[in-house]
Design brief:
The protein is α+β, with helices and mostly antiparallel strands. It is about 50% helix and about 15% strand. The chain has 14 helices and 12 strands.
Length: about 350
């Protein structure tokens, strides 16, 4: 049997529930993008990427197929009127895993890593960097030297150790004359191009998805206390490649679940053009309207949204696609990097002053 190399970034069972039409055993859905006209695709070909979850030997794609089959059956029972409360644990696992497996979270991890490197480039000449290196040298030079000397014969080891103060002064003078900024930029340039960096987001993401499947449950700490179905009689709900939208934080902002973490208040997962599953942690909160949800689904998606119809109602969201998919915006990243640079070596300085 051949390997399944084309993996769905959005669960195929979910795409089928938004199908515009069916022909035999094939379902078709409208894909809307920001810079391309709407296109009717087979759900087999929508939101796919080669080996996104690794090779078949890794087993992740097969494991996802197993749980998706179970969830597809559960949603059919919900369609038929089965109450949500007895299904709460399984619904929570579905919503959380659907949110975590979304492609924008992996792309966001990778983009944040690249952003970090770019910011380090920009801040490499900051005086705090060199001060921090001096502080590290003062505190750790003997320990680092001892680790190196373990590889040498005892006679050489003792000779170098007896002259460790002279060696430390020499290194310190080299550091004073060193273009630290240029050195740091060189290191990060190499890191950015290294295969391990390029694949880090994929490895970490797949590992997290695998763990969630193996656990068979989602985190209890952020579990909703109540589940509701939000109905849209007009059938205008769209599905993003970020399939779960959250409300969170002190100002009750709208964003992807991973942006808010433990501060998530509400989770919204579209399950058909006419229905949305809503997980509520704080019953006093107002629920999103369908228009708010559709706007967020588009903004938080990386590339596309999917709809059961190509009409004015669905097309209105296309210009918003990918306008808010990054987990941190530029201002938030700037604030983090300023803090990193300012605090570099601060712990050593604070310790010396006590």
């Amino acid at each position: 049997m051949g390997q399944r190399k084309r993996h769905h970034l959005v669960a195929r069972f979910l795409l089928k529930r938004f199908a515009a039409k069916a022909e035999g055993d094939k379902s078709f859905i409208w894909r809307l993008s920001k810079d391309a006209p709407p296109k009717l695709l087979s759900t087999k070909d929508a939101a796919v990427q080669s080996n996104y979850y690794g090779t078949e030997e890794g087993g992740l794609e097969a494991a996802l197929s197993d749980v998706e089959g179970r969830w597809a059956a559960m949603l059919r029972r919900i369609d038929a009127g089965e109450p949500l409360e007895p299904l709460a644990e399984e619904i929570w696992h579905m919503v959380y895993l659907t949110a975590y497996r979304a492609s924008p979270i992996r792309s966001g991890f990778r983009a944040m890593g690249e952003q970090f490197i770019e910011h380090m480039h920009h801040n490499a000449d900051a005086p705090e960097i060199k001060d921090g290196l001096h502080a590290y040298l003062d505190e750790n030079s003997e320990k680092e030297l001892m680790n190196v000397l373990e590889k040498f014969p005892p006679e050489v080891r003792q000779l170098v150790w007896d002259n460790r103060a002279l060696l430390k002064d020499h290194v310190s003078r080299d550091l004073d004359g060193m273009d630290v900024g240029e050195s740091i930029r060189g290191v990060f340039d190499q890191l950015k191009e290294h295969e391990s960096f390029q694949n880090a987001a994929k490895r970490g993401h797949n590992k997290g998805v695998t763990k969630l499947i193996e656990q068979g449950a989602a985190p209890v700490a952020v579990k909703p206390s109540e589940w509701k179905l939000l109905h849209d009689p007009t059938g205008s709900v769209v599905l993003g490649d970020c399939p779960v939208v959250a409300v969170g934080g002190p100002i009750r902002a709208i964003g992807a679940p991973w942006k808010f973490g433990k501060d998530c208040r509400t989770y919204c997962m579209p399950i058909s053009p006419r229905a949305v599953i809503v997980g509520i942690r704080y019953p006093e909160d107002d629920l999103l309207t369908i228009n708010q949800l559709n706007a967020a689904s588009a903004a938080l998606s990386e590339a596309s949204i999917f709809a059961s119809a190509d009409n004015e109602s669905s097309r209105r969201w296309a210009p918003r696609i990918a306008s808010q998919w990054m987990p941190l915006d530029e201002q938030e990243m700037d604030a983090i990097m300023r803090s990193v640079v300012t605090d570099f070596g601060k712990g050593h300085t604070d310790g010396d002053s006590e």
